[in-house]
Amino acid sequence: MSTPESTASHYPSDNHRKMYKGMMSFGFGVGLPVGGAIAMFVALLLLDAGIFVSLFLSFLTWLGLYGISKSFFMH
After folding, report:
1. 30: in domain
2. CA 26, CA 75: separation in Å to the nearest integer?
């Protein structure tokens, strides 16, 4: 038979919940758009698209991924 102390330790604390929400909001708000923009920039440079075209399209990629992540992944 379980005691109330053992079942209470299985639930995340309020501090753990805040940390998790902070990590997820940083990951989806910053990590996903920046990572996608860097990947797009490098891919376009490897395809010999030019530096300015690569910068512009990677900015648009960052903007699009930022909007998608704000709309669907963050509440």
Report:
1. no
2. 12
